[in-house]
């Protein structure tokens, strides 16, 4: 009989809820993807490169022009230098980059600290490498990290800490103090970090993204994974990247080359050209803050309670004033009965912690957000 390496995994909640939304004709605020088009200029560039012969394998490390633009952007924004030849790698989405970073670092018996609720790709990658997840549970409404608790979880077996900021699914973000506390913990220890920073440009209310590379001590121990999909509304292109010091990038690339080897070539050239205009990414925070505000204004008179999201394109809301139903059951009920799909946050906890909180994606057009808010406000 075939023995599964991941016996406890089934279909993801994102696939389940999107399918349920389609079946019932519901407004899909569950899975995290935009329902609006990318910038016509970016699409024009894709067409230009694809019709002019840029359709063969890209280099394993990524198109040189794109790596150079990413290095330049990171230096401008965070003051951190990465050599575009040896320290920047293009991947087939950030999920691939995260997997490659974990696989390059974690061996059987190594412990990996995971803050939960956690993006669902982390644990399978740890499991496949024989690693042992060590959970730090974050709680609604602010989901702040207790760094003393983190210190107490460090052991001689701790090999990696996975950090996600801005955070999916909670919308919380790291502060400068969080970066400093993390740096103290890993100082003089053989501990590496994965920085899941795919929402780096989706941050609100004048806050600044606190990348791991802003701290020199953390930078030297970190695989920082990013994505163009979330930033430029092109999740289907699956173009991600990883910044890491040369010695870490060498190991990262050993895994990457046998996962996907290379990534969609014409899109890499298109994105390299598109990044030359820095306003294309500097305008993203205000664009998505407005989306957040449209959604929050639409549910302001409802019975839901919330703290405005600080980053990502997700908003968590508490329905504790409405019902005592389990969050997974309630999410399914709302999809079927009122036609609005969300994600129950318990699925992001290994013990399925139910805090009566749903996650809504506001990367949608205004009409969809306002219509969803009108329906939810009637509950």
UniProtKB/TrEMBL annotation:
Keyword terms, alphabetized: Aminotransferase, Pyridoxal phosphate, Signal, Transferase
Stretches assigned to the Aminotransferase class I/classII large domain: 27-372
Pfam families per UniProt: Aminotran_1_2
GO molecular-function terms, A-Z: kynurenine-oxoglutarate transaminase activity; pyridoxal phosphate binding
InterPro entries: Aminotransferase_I/II_large (IPR004839), Kynurenine-oxoglutarate_AT (IPR051326), PyrdxlP-dep_Trfase (IPR015424), PyrdxlP-dep_Trfase_major (IPR015421), PyrdxlP-dep_Trfase_small (IPR015422)
Keyword Signal appears in the UniProt entry: yes
Named cofactor requirement(s): pyridoxal 5'-phosphate
Signal sequence coordinates: 1-21
GO CC entries: cytoplasm
Stored Gene3D superfamilies: Aspartate Aminotransferase, domain 1, Type I PLP-dependent aspartate aminotransferase-like (Major domain)
Protein family according to the UniProt entry: Belongs to the class-I pyridoxal-phosphate-dependent aminotransferase family.
Protein name in UniProt: Aminotransferase class I/II-fold pyridoxal phosphate-dependent enzyme
Originating species: Lacihabitans soyangensis
